[in-house]
Amino acid sequence: MIGVLRFEDSVPPSAARTPPRGVIRESLHVIKVGLGPILIDLMRRGFITSLAMNGAALVHDFEIALVGNTSEDVETGLVAGAFGMAAETGEYLNQIAKIAMRARLGYGQAAGQFLHNAVIEVPYANSSVLVAAYRLRVPVTVHLAIGTDIPHMHRTADGAALGSATHLDFRLFCSLVQQMHPGGIYLNWGSAVLLPEVFLKAVSVVRNLGVPLRPITTANFDFIQHYRPLQNVVRRPTASSHSRKGEESRGYAITGHHELLLPLVAAALVSGWPRSSPRKK
Length: 281
Hints:
By secondary structure, this protein is α/β, with parallel strands linked by helices. Helix content is 45%, strand content 11%.
């Protein structure tokens, strides 16, 4: 997931004089384990001003909006060839991709619009991160690897539509990463492969266009630290530039379960931590 945060002075972006700069990216697990309401609250408070997710997070948030829960028994379903074959999920998410291609929208915006406008009955819309982002005009980008998500197995899947929708979102994501310069913050929540790879390419695009993207702060949050987030989020984008003077970028690896870490980070933001101590006279 991507979200723009501003930590300076411990105030929400809406209270800051300059535009917020930063990125949060989330994998399916953040949505699947029920942390959507925390993300929605942070958006409403102005701490998050953009989001990015992979295709699995899109699936889970869509199903939560539609039926109020999301998950299935993979082992049991796989034996019978029923895994990932829920008709509504495949049909509607593929329909949204086709709408996005015709309207020249990104997948994230098209999904939020589809759910918000109640094209179909959406009884749990208030629990959806996509719907909240659309209502609050928070950009959402969705990044796919075709063949990795259950809608791609359905006969309604259209590779051209999926590619068009996610490619527009990649271009939007690059523009959001560009806004991180200088002083932006990028947080990767639980994506071990796809989103760190997309972030690395966006960093290269931005610097190729002449934006140094320094200093920035990055962090990877997960219950296991994997190779690609450590390299593509924590280390490579923040590597020292010996030819440039000024403040250096920093990267952090923070290990723990999302159900613990995200509420703690949210509580810290809302409470205004860390508070600067009064100077001694």
